[in-house]
Design brief:
The complex is a heterodimer of chains A (268) and B (295).
Chain A (H helix, E strand, L loop, with lengths): L1 H15 L2 H29 L10 H18 L4 H10 L3 H6 L4 H30 L10 H26 L9 H14 L11 H7 L9 H7 L5 H32 L6
Helix pairs in contact in A: 1-6, 2-3, 2-6, 3-6, 3-10, 4-7, 7-10, 7-11
Chain B lengths: L3 H5 L19 H24 L2 H26 L10 H35 L2 H6 L4 H7 L5 H19 L6 H27 L1 H4 L3 H14 L10 H9 L2 H4 L1 H8 L6 H25 L8
Helix pairs in contact in B: 3-4, 3-7, 4-7, 4-8, 4-10, 4-13, 8-13, 8-14
The chains are: A mainly alpha (268), B mainly alpha (295).
Chain lengths: 268, 295
């Protein structure tokens, strides 16, 4: 455990170098978000003040997007997958293999440290943005809601990491995996609820998506926080989410153990 | 959007001796022929480069098509809940998204890789080689590589536009098509000038890649109908400073016959011209700031 804490601290120091970059990324990321929010405001304005879209009021819709931005800051993989791919391609993992250290846990420590720095930096512009929209903000009040949101958020982070880790490990087989990363990301972007809340989709489609891992990366924690899932649905969702986290871990371990046999330590 | 093999290639060697290079040109016609020949050589280099990684070439096209489909899907989902956004109907917005993607893909085809490479040229000092060549450096920096896959994606965007025009029952006149094409060209030049300006910042900060990718977020604004934005700071900035709300909106409006007055396209042309001038001035200033990294 101690050694991973050490990795975590090194990770913090390394990512602190990029704080300006992070701030820049967070600020620029707000531009498309602003565009989307204006778009929704115009749609609601065209339908009258009390309009509902898939039982979202304008305020709950805006809250949803802010929450997504927050969840994204906390859980998104930024450079991790690219770094893992580069480690394998350039033979840098040889160094890790020689140490009494598990690569997955090593990477996880770096991921957590990177997210902490990013969230701290991104919090400033996101908070200012939220402050600007405060009249629309819907905040959960029940303690259980907040707790369950926290649990779901942590699982979302693990799932996010396992997916990125597994895709990055394809580097054992393929020279350049950037296309795979982008294809995976495209599916994630739409099916995890980044673009719009998934319950405004036709019910049949939303029902199918429920069994894929994607909604549990973003949409599901946000839905808990906004009180949009409750009762049996909530427990069922948490069960499916933990199932996917488990599957993600097994897949990550499995791909690693197959890949490492093919590893030829190029340039190492 | 490079495969590793492409990056590993010794860069200046490919363009060191294009057939047209000889005496520096003396008159306008000779200049045009000189740069035409040079660009031909750069094209044939790009074709060779792309054919080395056929699978990767195909996969990048898939990636871009997927993201385009995703934007269309987003708009379609919105239109299951409303009939009009800021006065734009479903197929009108599809036309707009198609147009925005068309301009963006042309930009990718001609410029994107080159501009993202610029900060690397500066950081590693490889810009020396380009500065030494007897040709305009901005020309070489901007047009060295051509991304051929992006033409296929531009064609896909074009097909979506044609389909939307059919759905809307429009019959554009030759004048409309000509105006549309010219204004798309202006939009292309705006994307190019602005991103070139951002890439040039690398002369001062060295690591400017983040800045260049930040520009990618702006493409998201370009495909939204401008009438969805209330009058205010946001709209003014993205109309006059970073004219994202013009690049695809104005050409689309030509086809849709929604252009209220010629002022709209005049603004687009004027802002486009100022962006280009600004980028050229900044480039010249920044170039004085260049201290080769290697020596």
């Amino acid at each position: 455990m101690g050694k991973y804490l050490h990795v975590f601290r090194i990770g913090i120091q390394n990512t602190l170098v990029y704080r300006a970059n992070f701030l820049f990324r967070a600020v620029f990321g707000l531009i498309p978000l602003t565009g989307t929010l204006f778009l929704w405001q115009t749609i609601y304005a065209g339908k009258g003040p009390e309009a509902l879209i898939g039982d979202y009021t304008l305020s709950s819709m805006i809250s949803y997007y802010l929450l997504i931005t927050f969840i994204d800051a906390l859980t998104a993989v930024a450079e991790d997958d690219w770094q893992i791919a580069a480690d394998i391609k350039d033979g840098l993992i040889s160094q890790i293999l020689l140490k009494p250290m598990d690569y997955l846990l090593y990477r996880l420590s770096l991921y957590v440290s990177g997210r902490m720095i990013y969230t701290t930096v991104a919090l400033i512009p996101v908070m200012l943005f939220a402050l600007y929209l405060r009249q629309h903000l819907v905040v959960p009040t029940e303690v259980t809601t907040i707790l369950l949101f926290g649990v779901s958020l942590v699982m979302a982070a693990f799932l996010q990491f396992f997916i990125a880790y597994s895709v990055a490990l394809l580097s054992f087989w393929v020279l350049d995996i950037s296309t795979f990363i982008f294809i995976q990301f495209a599916f994630e972007y739409i099916a995890s609820g980044h673009l719009f809340p998934l319950d405004i989709l036709p019910p049949a489609l939303a029902q199918i998506l429920k069994f894929t891992p994607y909604p549990y990366l973003c949409y599901f924690p946000a839905a808990i926080c906004l009180g949009r899932v409750s009762g049996p649905d909530l427990w069922q969702g948490l069960a499916i989410q933990s199932l996917w986290v488990g599957t993600g871990l097994v897949a990550a371990r499995g791909i690693w153990s197959r890949g490492i046999r093919r590893y030829s330590a190029v340039g190492g | 959007m490079d495969s590793p093999g492409q990056q590993a290639e010794p860069v200046p060697a490919g363009i060191a001796a294009p057939p047209a290079v000889g005496e520096p040109p003396r008159n306008a016609w000779a200049t045009l022929r000189f740069y035409g020949g040079l660009y031909g050589a750069l094209w044939s280099n790009s074709v060779t480069r792309e054919l080395q990684f056929k699978l990767n070439f195909g996969l990048w096209i898939v990636v871009e098509l997927l993201w385009f489909a995703l934007q269309l899907a987003f708009m379609s989902v919105l239109y299951t809940h409303t009939d009009s956004i800021g006065g734009w109907s479903r197929w009108e917005v599809i036309l707009l998204v198609g147009c925005a993607n068309f301009v963006q893909q042309l930009f990718t085809a001609f410029f994107l890789t080159n501009l993202t490479d610029l900060s690397e040229h500066i950081r590693t000092g490889r810009l020396d080689f380009l500065l030494l060549l007897p040709a305009n450096t901005r020309f070489l920096v901007s047009l060295r590589k051509v991304d051929l896959g992006a033409f296929i994606n531009a064609a896909a965007a074009f097909a979506v536009m044609v389909h939307a025009v059919r759905q809307l029952g429009l019959h554009p006149t030759t004048g409309q098509i000509l105006g549309f094409s010219l204004l798309c060209g202006v939009g292309l030049s705006i994307h190019y000038s602005l991103m070139f300006l951002l890439a040039t910042i690398a002369f001062w900060t060295v690591r400017a890649q983040g800045i260049v990718w930040g520009y990618y977020n702006l493409f998201n604004i370009a495909r939204l109908p401008e009438s969805a934005f209330p009058q205010g700071l946001f709209r003014r900035v993205f109309t006059f400073v970073l004219p994202m709300l013009l690049v695809a909106n104005v050409p689309s409006k030509v086809l849709l016959q929604r252009l209220g007055s010629p002022i709209e396209w005049l603004v687009l042309v004027l802002v486009g011209a100022s962006c280009f001038v600004a980028s050229e001035l900044f480039w010249r200033r920044s170039l004085c700031h260049y201290t080769s990294a290697s020596s």
